[in-house]
Amino acid sequence: LRNGVKMSQVMELPEILCIHLKRFRHEMMYSSKITNYVSFPLESLDMKPFLSQDSPSKCSIYDLVGVICHHGTAGGGHYTAYCQNWINGQWYEFDDMYVTEVHGVQVANSEAYVLFYRKNSPEALKERQKVVGMTNTHEPSLLQFFVSQQWLNKFNTFSEPGPITNYDFLCKHGGVPPSKANYVEDIVTSLPQPVWEYLYNRFGGGPAVNHLYTCPTCQIEMEKLDKRRKEELETFVKLNNEFQNEGEASVIYFISMSWFRDWESFVKGKLSEPPGAIDNSDIAVNKGGQWLRKNDSDCGQISEDMWNYLYSIYGGEPELARRQDLQEPARETQSAADDSPQEENGEEKGCIDQQEKE
Q: How confident is the model at residue 68 (pLDDT cuts 50, 70, 90)?
């Protein structure tokens, strides 16, 4: 035996602190509403006593900005909300279509269910004012630096925006991805050199960007990927047409439609990355060391050539096939549907309806 210490501490404070109060009690046979009054501050909630000593959070003071209230019982009720207008500091009650101006005392005495607090940092406000002043009074600089508009929004609203992150408009090579080249100017902001140096020295991060260009490496990779998509789609459609026209096939392979839908989204450009290895685990069951297809599984039927083509590119397992010249079908339980090579779960053979050719 030895002594133990159990504790709960906050490791990192969020910009918006959400406190969910326990308003409902659920017993074995019934549920009830907890209507006890809970006192909570409208301003200057200090979370420092709850912080771990290793927490990186510097600002621990919060002001209330919103409250959700529940009216009724555990069996039913109605929700209203109180929200503060950050421009004039006035509180408003939101009750369906009705919005009413209220006093803070009414908010403090409400039967709160969920509380929303926002960090309050006078230092952050001073820094924003300083950056605005530097931007408006700077001398012409030789270099202009581009900064993520997303990070600047955090700087203008968060007490602790964190390091500058420009990789929302940059690729890993330091250029602009071809997919973002047409609108990159809409997601960046140009800053004078003194302003950039101040922000960089204060928050770190980066990388520094004073020239926007489309990344040639990503351009080549994208062209190769487009070529691969086109080849895979055209080859599959060709093999599928042959499968549809050949009549009764000696071997039919089964493929998970979950994996196939991912592959189809990739070759049609809806997914940027190719799927992983073929995964038939959701349509297969192992019986005595042999893989059999589950009854009523979400699968498609493809020819041997189609399977071999996809397998040569992606690999994967398990392989599920039904051979027409054998009496033992690749199913978990034999049924009358196995005797028909033309249908699977009421559908014609082939796992893709060729509604369009690309």
A: very high
